[in-house]
Amino acid sequence: MKTLKEAAVGETVKVVKLTGDGPVKRRIMDMGLTKGQSVFVRKVAPLGDPIQVTVRGYELSVRKADAEMVLVE
Hints:
- The protein has 73 residues and is an alpha+beta fold.
- Helix content is 18%, strand content 40%.
- The chain has helices at residues 22-30, 64-67, and strands at 2-3, 12-18, 38-44, 51-55, 58-62, 70-72.
- Strands 1-6-2-3-4-5 form a 6-stranded antiparallel β-sheet.
- A hairpin with a 2-residue loop joins strand 4 and strand 5.
- It is globular, with a radius of gyration of 11 Å.
């Protein structure tokens, strides 16, 4: 298992688990990153922050620190 941060550009992954807690986990879930959801990694900024993803047809920017809390397969 890997984190969303480790997913390659152009890869579609499935969310397995969120490891954050409190307001951080709530923010991640509010973006639509919930268990079982497919996420397409569109682009990663040159320094790795942010990570641009597509979830449920929406284009989102996820901070590197938040992406480390999303376990995917």
